[in-house]
Every structure is written in C-alpha cells, then in structure tokens.
Write a structure and sequence with these properties.
The chain has two helices and no strands. It is elongated, with a radius of gyration of 27 Å. It has about 70 residues and is mostly helical.
C-alpha cells in the first residue's frame, strides 16, 4: 500500500494490520485459573451473605420486628 493511499483513507479490504494469533493454554494453567475463579465466587458469596445479614439486622428483621 502506498503512502498516498493511506493519506486518502483508501484501504484494500483484504488488508489487515496483523494476523490473529491463537494461544492455547495447557490443562494445568486452565485448571489453576478455574480454581481462582471458584475462590473469587466463594468470596463474593460470603460478602453477599454478610451484607444481606447486615441489612436484615439494621432493618430489624433478625429480631422479628417489622
């Protein structure tokens, strides 16, 4: 592609800047990432339950009020 074509904004429709490269991870890496995701989900669930309990406490639901 010539520089004058670039200045005009004309691009060949088949032109791409780079070839996509697919990277495959090995099973051990994938299992490690999966375990990390599971741990993050557990942490989020614990925090969600704690917040739900705090809301119940401050709204009086734990004491049978309301």
């Amino acid at each position: 592609m010539e520089e004058k074509d670039l200045e005009k904004g004309c691009f060949n429709p088949n032109w791409i800047e780079f070839e996509p490269v697919r990277k495959h991870k090995d099973l051990a890496t994938l299992l490690g990432e999966l375990e990390e995701i599971k741990q993050n989900i557990e942490i989020v669930e614990e925090k969600r339950l704690r917040l739900a309990n705090l809301v119940k406490f401050y709204s009086g639901d734990l004491l049978g009020q309301n």
